[in-house]
Amino acid sequence: MNNRRFYIETYGCQMNFADSEVVNSILMNDGMTPVQRAEDADVIFVNTCSIRENAETRVWNRLKEFRSLKKDNKELTVGVLGCMAERVRDQIIDREKLVDLVVGPDAYRDIPNLLSEVDDGRKAVNVLLSLEETYADISPVRTSGNGVTAFVSILRGCDNMCAFCVVPFTRGRERSRPIDSILREIDELNHQGYKEITLLGQNVNSYKHESIDFTQLMDEASSQNPEIRFRFSSPHPKDFPIQLLHLIAERPNLCSYIHIPAQAGSDSMLERMRRPYTREEYLSLTELMKETIPGVSLSTDIIAGFCDETEEEHQETMSLMKTVEYDLAYMFAYSERERTLAHRKYEDNIPEEVKKRRLSEIIKQQMSIQEKNNLKELGNRHLVLVEGTSKRSDDQLSGRSDTNKVVVFDRKDFQKGDYVEVEVTGSTSATLIAKSIKKSSITDFYSESVLV
Ligand code: 5AD
Ligand code: SF4
Fold first, then answer.
1. Which residue out of 14, 164, 330 has the highest number of ligand 1 atoms within 8 Å of its CB and is therefore the one to mutate?
2. Beta strand 406-410 with 431-440: parallel, antiparallel or unpaired?
3. Whose CA is nearest to atom 1 of ligand 2?
């Protein structure tokens, strides 16, 4: 036991944020107290991301800033957690002298022991990956966030081996968490007043524990908690369960929003990326999503400038995005990562300025698609879950529709955590502006819209 104060700074994906909440729980059980500022902490942890080079650069810069805090406070301990841990452990400890403790994504239970090693004057490292660890019995502690929306991790690791991606190396093999522990965590969140839960995994639709698959898990979770909204991230197009589309269409609290990463739009590029589907298969899947779930909102991830990308392949990516008309896209320039198939087999041969130009063409087109999609929303009614005050004005609230669009409207008497029925009165490429109609609930809103 110890009574030190700790601070965790998190980079990267939602999964990493969920992991920091697991670490909160482990440290608090050991007697430590979370604080909100690095300056107030005895131990600083940085939960890191390796997905692109700039993610790593940000972390290195931050560690250098912490070095100056270490100069003022000789007792200060700095630890690196997460995806960068294994890949750069030697660098971290020997060369940079910035860090006392390095812990990989499957070794968080060991942090209290590792801290004792640091106390004894040693550097402490555990970067072992596991075939079983899911932290199933640990109730994550959510010290930041809005108290309304939460993430629940259901599956760790990834077996997909996309050619560009470092995740299988940083997070190890895929393993699913038992359904009982997932439902227990959801029940706890329900009692704490959470209203929206996103089930997380690097490849959520491969969830399988004993005989339970992903569709069954979504079915159980949503039927047991009818006033909680459920989302999931991220599925893989190669084995998307069609049954789940029907379930989303029928079940009011399964959100009509699917993030379905395409990465690229040509068969040749998809093959080089080791994405086992064709352009046509991907487009039939998104078509089926739109047919089965009227009004569904789709989003994607896209990489510009992957190895050997031709201008034609780039145009095919643009045309795929135009065909699907995504409501949201996360768009990146390719960044070579050590150990991946692309690093071993191909050359990172698209010049930086070409990557940038292609990426900006992709972004520009996407912004105009979003603007058009949002203009079509004028007059539509949505059920918005209020997440907090709008960034622009204290008189306005901000939340998201079932379709994951950010909606702002006048505060009136509504509060964080309310479901409010709104009508869209205006829009930009990123936001819907609306007027409130009345406070509502999932059950009321959807039974009334069926009657209409
Ligand atoms: N370079 C650029 N983007 C990448 N992604 C994954 N690896 C890389 C990389 N090496 C993107 C993919 C993935 C998202 C989480 O990050 O689009 O879906
Ligand atoms: Fe970054 Fe990927 Fe690790 Fe998430 S899993 S933190 S995106 S490298």
1. 164
2. parallel
3. 49
Structure confidence at residue 2 (pLDDT): 75
Residue 150 is inside which H or E element, if any?
strand 149-153
For the cut 50, the answer to whether the pLDDT of residue 293 exceeds it is yes
Does residue 446 sit in helix, strand or coil? Answer: helix
Phi, psi of 364 (to 5 degrees): -60, -45
DSSP for 264-276, written as a single string: -SSHHHHHHTT--
The residues, ordered by sequence, that sit 6+ positions from 451 with a Cβ below 8 Å of its Cβ are: none
Ligand 1 contact via 275 beta carbon (within 6 Å): no
Task: Note if the bond before 144 is cis, omega within 30 degrees.
Answer: no
The whole-number pLDDT of residue 452 equals 46
Domains of the chain: 5-126 (3.40.50.12160), 149-370 (3.80.30.20), 381-451 (2.40.50.140)
Q: Give the ligand 1 atom nearest the CA of 166.
A: 7
Which atom of ligand 2 lies closest to the CA of 55? 1
Taking the C-alpha atoms of residue 422 and residue 452, their distance in angstroms, rounded to an integer, is 16
Which position has the token pair 């064709």?
A: 278
Q: Which is higher by pLDDT, 72 or 86?
A: 72
pLDDT beyond 90 at 98: no
The rounded distance, in Å, linking the Cα atoms of 210 and 253 is: 26
Percent of the chain having pLDDT more than 70?
97
Cα(346)–Cα(269) distance, integer angstroms? 13
Residue 216's H or E segment, with its range, is helix 214-224
Encode pLDDT of 383-417 as tens digits.
Answer: 999 999 999 899 999 999 999 999 999 999 999 99
Q: Amino acid identity, residue 127?
A: V
pTM higher than the cut 0.90: yes
